[in-house]
Amino acid sequence: MSEETREDIGAYVRRVALASREASRGLRAASGAQRNRALVEAARLLHERRAAIKAANAVDYGAAERGGLAAAMLDRLLLTDARIDDMVRGVREISAMEDPVGAVEGVRRPDGFLLEKVRVPIGVVAIIYESRPNVTADAACLCLKSGNACILRSGKEAMESGKAITAAITEAVALAGLPAASVQYIERTEHQGVTELVRQSGIVDLVVPRGGEALIRRVVEDATVPVIKHFKGVCHLYVDRAADLAMALEVVENSKMQKVGVCNTLESLLVHADVAAGFLPRIASRLERVELRGCERTRRFVPRAKAATEEDYAREYLDYILSVKVVDSLEEAASRIERYGSQHTDGIITQDSRAAEAFVAAVDSAVVTVNASTRLADGGVFGLGAEIGISTDKLHARGPMGVRELTSYKWVVRGDGTLRR
Amino acid sequence: MSEETREDIGAYVRRVALASREASRGLRAASGAQRNRALVEAARLLHERRAAIKAANAVDYGAAERGGLAAAMLDRLLLTDARIDDMVRGVREISAMEDPVGAVEGVRRPDGFLLEKVRVPIGVVAIIYESRPNVTADAACLCLKSGNACILRSGKEAMESGKAITAAITEAVALAGLPAASVQYIERTEHQGVTELVRQSGIVDLVVPRGGEALIRRVVEDATVPVIKHFKGVCHLYVDRAADLAMALEVVENSKMQKVGVCNTLESLLVHADVAAGFLPRIASRLERVELRGCERTRRFVPRAKAATEEDYAREYLDYILSVKVVDSLEEAASRIERYGSQHTDGIITQDSRAAEAFVAAVDSAVVTVNASTRLADGGVFGLGAEIGISTDKLHARGPMGVRELTSYKWVVRGDGTLRR
After folding, report:
1. Which residues in chain B are closer than 8 Å to A378, comparing Cβ atoms?
2. What is the pLDDT of residues B202-211, one digit of tens each?
3. If you measure CA to CA, which chain B residue comes closest to A401?
4. Domains of chain B
5. B392-420: per-residue pLDDT in tens?
6. ipTM of predicted complex
7. Nearest-CA residue of chain A relative to B122?
8. In sequence order, which residues have a C-beta less than 8 Å from that of residue A119 and are 6 or more positions away?
9. Which chain B residues have a beta carbon less than 8 Å from that of A375?
């Protein structure tokens, strides 16, 4: 890249960021009704512009196919009518959610004044993602709902789809009388654009990377703006010695099979030695489509299991593969989860309430489950509404991150000439 | 610095960080009573070890004096009996606070399971500060209270004082049966130590820099661990056309004079043109000790005011200096606050409730005051207990940051074989 191009991209990204900053003032002043109007119009326009969006997606898809993109990636990129219906339904659901902005969360009456803690938008949010075109609509609409200006930057393979979807949303924004720059889409595809974007401290308030580990690590490395990470989910279930094995069969099967390519799917199974003989052959026949990679004891009970390596236990397969380990205690299970897990979602299956409580206390994951499928770890299932992702960070937002987590708060002091003594 | 030294420091910091990580497990498992016992013992030992702490401080002070440290910095460094009393009282107050850990903050009952949101410690917190020795006790005890292991790194001029204070606290930690590495103090003074510390992603969970802008910017630039910034406070008061001028005199005087060297002190005064003639001469005579730097209109009413430069309006003086500007509207005041302020604490003085609400909505600062002193922006005054600082960030914690803001949460799903359909 020439020096000139690099400067061009820097200047372009800064211009976009400053326009977002300016728009965020207008969004902060807008009412919830006005923001909702933009969302209702966005749902309508995305529905009406279906043909144009599919045509743009066909351009992306064709180029990606010719470029030899892997089948799983091509599938992520594809927009079908059903997926556009889902996208439109998602936007309608966001518009129907409660307004997260303006709520007075706490009132105190210290000496001589009234103190309120009030929810406010964060300001300018940058979302950096890869090839799923529906993220464009989801992320833009979650930001609009929460009063944030957003800057979207997708992978280059989804660029035409992203532009077509953003065009519908920015038209909706204009119809609602909101600032034009409320939703902006960065078209330049060089990685330099991301680097510049995540260094706009004081202009951009938050970066949310959504994608593979490599993308997230690069963003964290470069960023001076705060980042909320949505890392991988290496989710575990531990089948305790006091487990109801019939229940364990159902929960393990559901956790692994209900949807295999997502971050809350089961990747590693831990089984107490006392129940290994009774449980492992049965779960192996339930999961006949799944390749099992196990420890020596596992392979004694399940001859078809391959030998697991150390790396296997830390992997997010997102596939019909499961690592399996026989453990001698709950403590061993918890310490393996700490070592190999990703602090996303980890659970125990047991009828022993003391074991359950010990597990909940020992395992420091965003979501800890007891006698429940890991697949329940989801903002929608939790009743929190649409989510922008599942945070594996501990700061600000942990686990499902929805519109409330896209807000901050401010303190309002109301006095009558109140002084500090 | 030789390559060898650099590697030494890297290895040393990593060893410290890993020991903290391990200690954080023990702290997570400890009860609130056990953590409080450590705090009670710490208060006792800090009181008893007063002579040793003062002797260590004398070493620091002597070296700093010989090294030509500025008077204001020397004063920050000095530990008097009164300041040690304050430190001990602070630790006792922290021990008396409500336990922020373990509270179930929200319970939902989605289909088929019980969902709890539970407060948990963040894990490992690094605090990087400068020369005030009392920060060592404050920060360590706030972290103990909230169940976090902490790594303390002060400026080299306060190193002996910091070691003496830490020695008392780690003895208290041992008496309470908590892990020895719950509180650690980094002794190496090279800046390389800070750089290594703020890059321990996955081991250190949070970095809180406390100090001047240069320190904070360097930490933000280097860090891969999340940082909560406590930047400067360029606090404003706007005297509206509808202000009660007698109240305005009191509030402005208190905001500027009650304590001059702190982040919530008043640094810039904005006065509506309609009341400038009536207000400016009176406030100028009230603030006779204060150097005023004003705009042309200000200087018409206050001949002793010097001409303010652009930079004057953005400065955090922490001194008997105040910038003054006459404005023509509330909107102009709000836009100046956005441009020159630091989103810390900014207020309006008015009897017009519409003007007050417009100001509260327009000004995006951590604390917004109406008819009240900026000096009220304080965790203690707010009734939130001792604070580790006042965050000018918008993520996680905004404004006064106390023990609750040193916690995170986890989601606990309690099912009875609950699956995702």
Report:
1. 420
2. 899 999 998 8
3. B411
4. 3-229+396-414 (3.40.605.10), 235-381 (3.40.309.10)
5. 999 999 999 999 999 999 999 999 999 99
6. 0.92
7. A394
8. A100, A101, A102, A103, A105, A404, A407, A408, A409
9. 419-420
